[in-house]
Design brief:
- By secondary structure, this protein is α+β, with helices and mostly antiparallel strands.
- The protein has three domains: 90 residues, SH3 Domains (SH3 type barrels, Roll), CATH 2.30.30.40; 71 residues, SH3 type barrels; 122 residues, endopeptidase domain like (from Nostoc punctiforme) (endopeptidase fold (from Nostoc punctiforme)).
- Helix content is 17%, strand content 34%.
- α2 packs across α3.
- The chain is globular.
């Protein structure tokens, strides 16, 4: 092969390797941590979107890379759930401990929040729309020699996205210091999601399954509960209670038996509970515990410790 052609091929391969490395997860990513860079990514049981969805991860989540396999990556989320996601939905962490793990952050408190190129909703379409609970880094100047950017326009916060660029979000969509909710506050939070679609494997405001919904409500109270309903009922962070002793905020578990739990919801008092279900309308809804089929399917009640 002529030297010029060989050199050109080597240069082309080097460029391709660099581009490929920027977009594809690698085994030597810092601490095996990668960041989700799409609003919601489905986690599949196998490396194919033809397989079943087992859970989800949302924008800015730090996940552990377990295995990279071409266009697919097997990851583990903070709740220790494992699944396959498209590799293009992730970005490698080359330094530090991940995204939004230090420094000032804000958390999306609206059901959805639009993020813009500039502090103006009229000039361009949103860069991205992210779901409830998304955590974002607040943009700060790290170089003491740089010129201060000046105060942000009223009603806006500049954020640094996990795709290594800055953008703007409205202050009304975020909170800067989320604190654990009380039981009444968690019930009010739950009601904000009424009508949100039921989605198998869902754990975001784009759609919840039953256990993803209760897991989010418990997380809002400051506790990290397992992902699946049967795991939640067996979790060491809860204690068993009798049906007659139910209090608002208790968790309800349904199934054919205590060993075959397949559904969950949260008791909100007055004989009612809130749940994500496909029964009737497939949405988050309030149901009565004494109604069929729930009164016959209730097999366990739990109270957070």
């Amino acid at each position: 092969m002529p030297i010029r052609k060989r050199a050109w091929r080597n240069l082309s391969c080097a460029v391709a390797a660099i581009v490929f490395g920027l977009w594809m997860p690698q085994a030597d990513a810092k601490n095996g941590i990668e960041i989700v860079v799409v609003p919601v990514t489905n986690m599949y049981s196998h490396p194919s979107d033809k397989s079943d969805v087992v859970s989800q991860a949302i924008y800015g989540n730090n996940v552990t890379l377990l295995l990279a396999k071409g266009e697919w990556s097997r990851i583990q989320t903070a709740d220790h759930y494992k699944g396959w996601v498209p590799s293009r939905h992730l970005r490698i962490v080359l330094n530090g401990d991940g995204y939004a793990t230090s420094g000032p952050v804000v958390q999306v408190d609206s059901l959805f929040a639009n993020i813009y190129n500039e502090p103006d909703i009229t000039k361009h379409k949103p860069v991205i729309t992210v779901p409830f609970e998304t955590v974002l880094e607040v943009a700060v100047t790290k170089d003491p020699k740089s010129t201060p950017a000046g105060p942000a326009p009223d009603g806006w916060i500049q954020v640094r996205l996990p795709v290594m660029r800055t953008a703007w979000i409205q202050t009304g969509d975020v909170i800067s210091d989320p604190k654990p909710l009380s039981i009444p506050q968690s019930i009010e939070l739950a009601k904000r999601f009424l009508g949100i679609p039921y989605l198998w494997g869902g754990r975001s405001s784009y759609g919840f399954d039953c256990s993803g919904f209760t897991q989010m409500l418990v997380r809002a109270r400051g506790m990290n509960m397992p992902r699946d309903a049967d795991q939640q009922a067996a979790w060491k962070g809860v204690v068993a209670v009798n049906r007659k002793d139910l209090q608002a905020g208790d968790l309800l578990f349904f199934g054919s038996s205590a060993k075959q739990i397949t559904h969950t919801g949260m008791y909100i008092g007055d004989g009612q509970f809130i749940q994500a279900t496909t029964t009737g309308h497939p949405v988050v809804q309030i149901s009565r515990l004494d109604d069929d089929p729930w009164t016959h399917l209730l097999v366990a009640c739990r109270r957070l410790k």
